[in-house]
């Protein structure tokens, strides 16, 4: 335990410490940055603290290369921030926009208003972690615009304030987010693993790109409050994280992918056992899941993972790409280590 | 704890004790009996002992009135038992028949061979607990054929040897099966509750009547062996059982039905978190489940439960029968206390 683990600190005080005098820097006219989306192989499901978005357990992800968010910022002379999502101005009433503006208001001096021009190459809020790449790109672009020159660890913590999984989206490849135990989250930061896995492939089966009815944030809170089975989750999640990291180091695809699927299914199990039940699967999700399990029974080393949404993501190695494409003609294949 | 809770006893020795001299009675020429199927409101999921089918937790069910099994027995002069299921002779290779013959060979003297003529009014092995009514009817018919005159408690234990949930199918109405703690299961018996609930309705949405790919027996074993979340299940199951029994006594439909749905969803959650994942839901199951949740959000007090299969069972009160029928035109409605 750290020295301050039993103290509480507000986000505002922590931000003052991190940004220091740089908070009042004069911004450049504009800046932009890209961040990849990511898929957790060992999931983040449950907060130990909500204002800093501190997780109950660590998690480990793979970034989605060219699937992510490009965000441009420019200083505007206006009373409020403007948010353009995929070319269209969006209402401040949408929860994604509310959270984005809340983040900007926290980190910027009050008088600075921005036009935020954000382009997702993945659907928003459909379980493809676009809030992860969105807040990571926003953090990188703001760091550049404001001339903060913050170290990556602090950028990861800043991105986390917007969305927990954004802490992992600052890098390509495998990224591990430590749970940490400090109340200000200063040890709850992500860092990339050095391992590369050029043969690894991710397949996206997009079942729906509609905004989900229950956000991850609310889903986590409901699960923790009402699922008895969730009490066992932190222990499994920590154990899965260790297994997956070791399998990555060893280049052991089967162990890595099997543990990732087991982890994802167990996370969805904690949701199903919440009250009211939280089931993000659509009938079409189940069709694709059953297809994966059938192919695997027939000998194909193909595994799935799912986030808090209906979309199914496949894990496989390059040598099976043809078989996977034949079975799933609409699949989008990502090469995370291109 | 009972005196013999730390001893082990074979099923054969226990049967000799229970049947005593009656084991060698001369059978009547024929006998028959009916037993209703049942749906657990608080589920049985997991054995603490396999040869006696002893459960990890207690469970509580509602019997399905005229949905059940009628079994006729007649003594035949043949080298082996004959099993007729719904009018057709079935191979000894089928697991239901294997278990049925195994049960007969345990309880009958070796020289007695029977023709077993069993009629289900519900599909076999589709999660409608036809093994429950099947073994309960077989137990009752055998008791009659052999002139055992056993007390109901021992009949419940005998039925349990065939299928755990059969211990609850000897009665109509609400039935509670105590987990017990003795190794011979002599305290793991079911008994009916005295409460009647004439307004209670059960709706059956039959999604598939095909035999399921993984039997409940194997599903339970896989779940216990591989699901970390299952470790939390016994505690929830025992607590749900208490809540449901109290709600029945109080006539509190919402608490009873809500707890039953939460219990069923949590059981399915333990399955989904097994390895390989065990998902009995079909796409059509999910469609019906979502429909129930939508109707409930709109104010209809409608709840669901599911067993180890794809079929969805609804719980509601008589006064909402019209709305339920309008929403689910193919529903079969059961009046458990007709």
Concise description?
The first copy, chain A, has helices at residues 11-19, 95-107, 130-146, 152-162, 216-226, 233-250, 253-272, 283-297, 321-327; strands at 30-42, 47-49, 54-55, 59-76, 82-85, 88-89, 113-120, 174-177, 190-192, 200-205, 303-305, 312-317, 332-334.
General description of the model:
Two copies of one chain form a homodimer. The first copy, chain A, is an alpha+beta fold and 338 residues long. The first copy, chain A, has two domains: 11-192, 2-Layer Sandwich (Ribosomal Protein S5, domain 2); 200-334, Alpha-Beta Plaits, CATH 3.30.70.890. Chain A is built from nine helices and 13 strands. The first copy, chain A, has helices spanning 11-19, 95-107, 130-146, 152-162, 216-226, 233-250, 253-272, 283-297, 321-327; strands at 30-42, 47-49, 54-55, 59-76, 82-85, 88-89, 113-120, 174-177, 190-192, 200-205, 303-305, 312-317, 332-334. In chain A, strands 1, 4, 5, 6, 7, 8 and 9 form a seven-stranded mixed β-sheet that branches. A four-stranded antiparallel β-sheet of chain A has the order 11-12-10-13. In chain A, β11 and β12 (312-317) form a beta hairpin. Chain A is globular, with a radius of gyration of 20 Å. Mean pLDDT of chain A is 93; it is low at 1-6.
């Amino acid at each position: 335990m750290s020295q301050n683990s039993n103290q509480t600190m507000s986000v505002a005080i922590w931000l003052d410490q991190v940004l220091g005098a740089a908070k009042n820097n004069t911004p450049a006219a504009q800046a932009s940055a890209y961040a990849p989306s990511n898929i957790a192989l060992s999931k983040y499901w449950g907060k130990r603290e909500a204002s800093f978005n501190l997780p109950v357990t660590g998690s480990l992800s793979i970034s989605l290369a060219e699937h992510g968010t490009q965000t441009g910022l420019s200083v505007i002379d206006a009373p409020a921030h403007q948010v353009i999502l995929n070319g269209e101005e969006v209402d401040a009433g949408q929860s994604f926009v509310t959270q984005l503006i809340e983040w900007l208001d926290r980190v910027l001096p009050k008088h600075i208003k921005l036009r935020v021009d954000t382009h997702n190459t993945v659907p928003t809020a459909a379980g493809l972690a676009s809030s992860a790449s969105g807040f990571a790109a926003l953090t990188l672009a703001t760091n550049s615009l404001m001339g903060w020159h913050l170290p990556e660890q602090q950028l990861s913590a800043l991105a986390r304030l917007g969305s927990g999984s954004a802490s992992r989206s600052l890098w390509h490849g495998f990224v591990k987010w430590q749970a940490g135990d400090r109340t200000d989250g200063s040890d709850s930061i992500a860092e990339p693993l050095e391992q590369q896995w050029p043969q690894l492939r991710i397949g996206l089966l997009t079942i729906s790109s509609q905004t989900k009815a229950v956000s991850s944030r609310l889903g986590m809170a409901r699960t923790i409050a009402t699922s008895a089975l969730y009490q066992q989750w932190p222990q499994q999640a920590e154990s899965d994280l260790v297994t997956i990291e070791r399998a990555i180091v060893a280049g052991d695809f089967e162990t890595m992918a099997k543990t990732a699927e087991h982890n994802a299914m167990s996370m969805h199990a904690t949701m199903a056992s919440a009250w009211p039940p939280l089931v993000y699967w659509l009938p079409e999700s189940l069709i694709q899941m059953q297809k994966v399990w059938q192919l695997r029974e027939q000998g194909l080393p193909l595994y799935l993972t799912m986030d808090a949404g209906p979309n199914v993501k496949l894990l496989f190695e390059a040598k099976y790409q043809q078989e996977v494409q034949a079975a799933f003609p609409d699949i989008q294949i990502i090469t995370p280590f291109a």
